Structures are given as structure tokens and as C-alpha cells.
């Protein structure tokens, strides 16, 4: 009898142990996704930079998998991040630009990532994950009224948000200049001054009796001056108050924000999110405010690099990545956590001044940079995956991959098998684990705004990667390596040059896109153009309803002037509008 009881007890203990082991073994992996803003692929040591110190990023690569042909879906942040979040080209969600304005400019605008879109955070949230975004969003906030938060991260699958609903930009620092429609600001300001001088002149003429001036004309002119001044002053002069804010979930907790302490606060929030969710599956998107201008002046890094303030900021980024890795490892989470490091697009070549020097990144041997269409320097970015025990250390993948691949990859690892809409990304795990040698991206499409700018073709059975440019941005001044006159190249009209036949390069043999191929130098020239044309037709069949106003699902374009310009009733505010103001940890000011 006693032996039977012992056997039964032993069986129960073994069964319980098996259940505990099974539960641990079946626990879904964690995800720590880290994205830098505006970093060039040439800024990182493991991608060839030997003058800036990035030991922590280099360590991620040595302990994981490095992608050498990792491609952003757009050379600017708003469309690139929309594609990253959804696994789909930005034109599908209405986040591609039709004209001059290519990114969201005001938190008080109504444009943003539509609620009809699904992010990887929303998919994982539905799978029981705790999801968090710390840092930059820049995909909109409100739609019809202040507080509806239709575009807010909380509505797109992030259960926790702390950071910048907009982005870090020069207006956030006194004396840093303005990034937002500077020429329009200048015109409105000058118009207001000119009208003011005109009004004073007419008043003097009337008072002095030189000739008769209608009182109604003076009154009308006065009110027109007030209106013009308000149109300039309210949205533009107060930009630091409107755009430079910090939110925790849907509450504005700092307005305007204190830039100097931002890196430490973002890091602390990211670390705390990991620590408080260490015992459950989580996804953290750590979206750094670096290295977008204005550059930080953190005392611990000031003057420490060989490349001025920009180099100091790169080394601070590396330190931040090291602290994130240290947090994951110290909690014993490394073997069950996929860590990912990238940039939203290439470095901003034109950004420099006489006081600070170069303020944008280095894109290595690749031509072009931020906001330069499909040129490689603006879309080829770092891509590093680290997962000890699952991914082989030191592996290098030279196949074409995309930021859009993160969506299907995390979905696969989270065991999400529910049907999805059309995706443009592919699950990367077979490639990362070495189970396959070829990328599923035989063709990749490169957009400048909503316009198909270039196509990449990786023929089966070939090392060649052909790149066709249908048009290229016009550099200004002519002959320069970028749009230095305007700081941002445009994608339409007189701002581009169309090529017939298209420009053709082989990135395998000519990664810097410096030697266009011809029928005399490339035997497959006609075949390449034909195959690419057919691929474009297939791709455009998935975008049949796309025009300048709607995308394939009838979603309105989010990048029109109507949706981008500032509206007082949409402006996030701490306190009573328009007297918005508060500091984190303090009462409203």
C-alpha cells in the first residue's frame, strides 16, 4: 500500500515538474527593438567605421547576426516608421507624400497612422504580450478633437508609451533655428511687418491731412495684420510649446520638454519597462531621440570623440545600447530575448553649420542620404539581431532584407497564425538561422513619397543585385552631392529628373552606384528591364486604387496640407489651451 502511495506521489511530482518545464520551454520570446533616428550605416564600427567608438553595438553584432543589405522602405522618418510598424509600404496606409511636405510637421495636425492599419505591437498584444514604446513616435496623435488619440501609440497596440509623440527637432532648443516651413515663416513674418509699416504710413497720412484715407480701409488693414500675425505667430513662434512635448500614455507630462535630460529619462523608462515585465512575454520598442538634430550636449560625452558633437552623440548612442544589453543580461533574459538594432534611414548629409560642423551621419561608400529618394545611402541601414542560443554568433547575411521584415518575424516568433492583410515584409528567421541562403525579397520597391522611384532585383541563382532608378532627385546646387540649398530633396515635378531608359546599376559589383550599366556593358540589360517592368506591374496591381488621395483600402492620404497644418483644437496640451505648460514631476506651470 505504502509503495503504491509512493509511486503515485512520485508520478504526480514528475507530472508537475513536466508541466513546469513545459511551461518554461514554451514561453514566448521577448523582443527589444532599438531604432536610432538618422544614423548612417557608416557611423558604426562593425560596418567599417574605425574612428568612432561603438563597442557595444559591435558586441551585439559579434554575438549575433549582422545584415549588410538591410533596407528602409523610405529615406525619411514618418513613411519609414509607418512601414516598419505595419510591414507594408507607406503608400498602403496613406503615409506617402504627394508633394513638398514628406513628414508630419505639427502635433496639432490630423494626419497619422490610420486606425485601420495593424502594427506588430497590436498583433503581439493580441497574443498576450505586454508592449511598450519608449522614445519617438512621429506617426500622429489626434484626428478630430483634442484627446481622441486616434493615431496615438496606445491605439496602435502599445500598452505603455513614454516619450516624444512628435520628434526631436531644432525648434526644441533656443537658438537652434527652425525645421518647419522656414521659408513660409519668413514670408508671413515679413508680410506682417510690411503691412504694419503700411498701416502706420497711412495713419500718418490721414492725421497730417496729406490726402483722404478711408477709416474703413485702416480698420480692415489693421484686422488683416492681426490675422496675418496670428497665422505666423501662433503655430510657428510657439512651435517648442506645441511640438516639443513628452507624454506618458495619453497624458502630456512635460510641455515644452527639457532636452538636456531627455537621454537619461528615455533610458530609465526603457530599463524600468524591461524590469517590471521580466516575468512575462514583452515587446519593447526603444526609439531613440538621437541622432536627429539638435545634437545633445551631454557632459559625459562632450568632446570625447574625434568627430565633434556628432561623434560624441554616436558614442552616447553606443553607451545607451550597452546599458540596454546590460539590463537584459543582468535579468537573465538574454537566451529568451531577441534584440534588434537599426536606424530608420540613412544619415542627413546636408545638415551642418560653421559653429558645430557636420551634424548629419556618414553613409560609408553609398551614394546619397536622408531624403534623397532611392539612392543607397538614404535607405541602407544597420541591421543587427542578437539572440544567444538561437542565432549563431558572428554570422553575416549579405542578402536583401527590409525593416518591414520585423512585422512578420515577430509575428512568427509570437506564434501568431491568424490571417493578415497583404504584407510586403518576410519572416527573417530562416535567413537569420542559416536554414536558407536566399532572401525572399527577389524584388524590392523604393519609394520617394508616393512615387515609385527605383526597383531592386536579386535574380535567382545570381550574386548580382540590379537596381533601376526611374527618376532621381535633382541635387542643389547642381553638381553637389545632395540638396544643400533646401536640406531636403523633393520627389516631384521640377525637383526630379526622369530617366528613359532608366539608370541601371549592379550593387554587387558597384555598391556606390557610380557606374551605370548599358547594353554594351551588361549582356542581360534588356532582360533586366523586362523582368523589372513585369514585377512593377504585379506590384502595382496590389495598389490599383492608389492615387494622390486614397490608398488601396480607401484610407485618405495622411500627408496632405489639410491634414498636416496646425489646428488649435487638435493640439495636445498640459493645462488649459493655449496656456499649455508643465514639467515632469512638478505641478502645471
Task: Provide the low-confidence segments as ranges.
Answer: 1-25, 546-554
Query: Span between N and C termini?
Result: 77 Å
Could you tell me the strand content as a percent range? 15-25%
Principal-axis shape equals: globular
Quickly count the helices.
Answer: 14
Count of individual beta strands: 19
Structural account:
It is built from 14 helices and 19 strands. It is globular. The chain is α/β, with parallel strands linked by helices and 589 residues long. Mean pLDDT is 89; it is low at 1-25 and 546-554. Strands 1, 2, 3, 4, 5, 6, 7, 8, 11, 12 and 13 form an 11-stranded mixed beta sheet that branches. A 4-stranded antiparallel beta sheet has the order 14-15-16-17, covered by helices on one side. Strands 9-10 form a two-stranded antiparallel sheet. The chain folds into 2 domains: 27-169 and 246-439 and 557-579, Alkaline Phosphatase, subunit A (3-Layer(aba) Sandwich); 182-237.
How do you describe this structure in short?
This protein is of the alpha/beta class and 589 residues long. The chain is built from 14 helices and 19 strands.
What would the keywords be for this entry?
589 residues, alpha/beta, Alkaline Phosphatase, subunit A, 2 domains, eleven-stranded mixed beta sheet, four-stranded antiparallel beta sheet, 19 strands, 17% strand, globular
